[in-house]
Amino acid sequence: MVKKSVVDVNLEELREAGYDAIIFDLDNTLVGWRAKTVPQDVTRWLERAGDLGFKMCIVSNSLVRRVTKFSELLGIPAIPKAIKPMQRPFLRALHILNAHPQKVVVIGDQVFTDVLGGNRLGSFTILVRPVDKREFFTTILFRTAEKLVLFRLRKKGMLKDFFTKKEKC
User: Fold this and answer.
1) How many domains does the chain have?
2) 14-28, 108-122, 148-162: which range is least confident on average?
3) Domain range holding 32?
């Protein structure tokens, strides 16, 4: 599934479908790459997720200091320096959440880290557009390959148009 932003993900539909936990990426999914605060709409969306009973965990390749700051700010457990798409951080998140992979949604902005990691786990994955155009230099390299994959999937009719601003989610 592809959405413009994490706040465009319909939490009620996920609950009705039987999901009870969400694993998030941090940078360019919940907040901008160098952001120091969480946007209000994201904060409200996360509060709504909590109100609906979702268990949540952040799994990020970012450094401990940054991830810990947002983990404490949001009151959501987190796994920093995750080295996604390796399975170990996702399995740690499952343990923290006391969740079954088929009941978990993984939301992130990168195909080769977040979506691949979630798919390897056997979870439902949602790809969102990056919050910010500024990114870590290695992410820029992955984005080039990612765009080719997304283009081919879109061309085969397997994915909504991810590249235009006219997309409706």
Assistant:
1) 1
2) 148-162
3) 2-133
